[in-house]
Amino acid sequence: MTRDPKSSVTERSKYQQNIIKNYYENRENIAIQRVQELVTELFLSEGKKRNTQWDRLEKHLLKLDVKQATIDHLRKKDDPQLVAKLAERLGKELD
């Protein structure tokens, strides 16, 4: 990255621009993949770690435009299988 001292705009190389473009084109798929990984972690965790996994999961579900009420319901039920089904459905919607 080069920065013109007179300008506050950062210039990016073509390679960097492509990486950024690809990220934004695929961010929903990335979020779904992360949700699936967190569901696995949720199955294996207990106590404080489980709450941490739910916090992370909530963040990624919000990125996927899942309603807060739905997330709250899933968290109250504390059933990773329900989250797995939701992730599967969201993945099919993207295809």
Structure characterization notes:
It is a single chain. This protein is mostly helical. Helices cover 77% and strands 4% of the residues. It has one domain. It is built from 4 helices and 2 strands. The model has no long low-confidence stretch (mean pLDDT 89).
Strand order of the largest sheet: 1-2
* Tally of individual helices: 4
In the residues, how many domains can be counted?
A: 1
The amount of helix comes to over 70%
User: How many E-type strands?
Assistant: 2
Name the poorly predicted regions.
Answer: none
Any idea what the shape is? elongated
| Content-based structural category | mainly alpha
Short structural summary:
This protein is mainly α and 95 residues long. The chain contains 4 helices and 2 strands, in the order E-E-H-H-H-H. The protein has one domain (28-94).
Features:
about 100 residues; 4 helices; mainly alpha; single chain; two-stranded antiparallel sheet; 2 strands
Secondary-structure map with pairings?
Elements: E1 2-3, E2 10-11, H1 14-44, H2 47-63, H3 68-77, H4 80-94
Antiparallel strand pairs: 1-2
Helix pairs in contact: 1-2, 1-4
